[in-house]
Amino acid sequence: MQLLDGKKTAADIKEEVAEEIKLLKLKGGKTPHLVAVLVGNNGASITYVNAKIAACDKVGMQSTIVRLHDTVTESELLDKVEELNNDADIDGFIVQLPLPKHISDKKVTEAIDPKKDVDGFHPWNIGKMMLNLPTFLPATPFGILQLIERYNIETNGKHCVVVGRSSIVGSPISNLMSRNSYPGNCTVTLTHSRTVNLKEITLTADILIVALGKPEFITADMVKEGVVVFDVGITRKADKSKKSGYKLYGDVDFKGVQEKASFISPVPGGVGPMTIVSLLKNTLLATKGK
Fold this sequence. Notes:
The chain is an alpha/beta fold. It is built from ten helices and eleven strands. The chain has a six-stranded parallel β-sheet. It has a three-stranded parallel β-sheet with strand order 3-2-4, with helices on both faces. Strands 9-10 form a two-stranded antiparallel ribbon.
């Protein structure tokens, strides 16, 4: 078994991004500027945004956090999005999800300028991805593709099973793994919570990508020998023995599944760091596209 070390791979990519930013500035280009809009005080969201800002600092990218109270109205948030759309100094921005229940994620996502949508969630960018046109790829699927490339994982003709059909991970990675390129050329099966005989399907997977949000859902008896596993799930559970007060769990029972896997990503330290570095790469791409 080989560990898909997202932490180390992301660190390598950060060095490459930092070098690109240096060259960009030497040629008279601007410093890339990423803005994160954070609504409310969701602990996980705060952690994610802080990690993204720290990553920006690491590579020499300018970053700003826009903090809004969880009582902000949908109209006020949409006004802020429009303000960011029109700010020429900002190359890319994200609105951290989830949002409070009184605000429509879809409305906010659709309001973002596609040219600044470095999360890759706007319908315009999703459509271009489906047509295999140059665009911002959703950060987590983009991160998985980079891990595949960096570890030289064979995908041609393989059966890729995706567990979870979200618009953020499951649906886009299904499309990307089936496209006529590398990584890709897989036969893809997209499964979800209503799938019948899920275990029978996962047992046929050469590549298994799990993004369900159910801790340790995939167990050793659900995978075959030699499977490549990408665990996208992350769930916090209270744990008084930890300094943080909680422990992180993936969607895969790592201890059991690692005995059968040829490659497997851990939680934490697997796909998560790759998601953040993909956001940096998208922001750099947005800056160069100006």
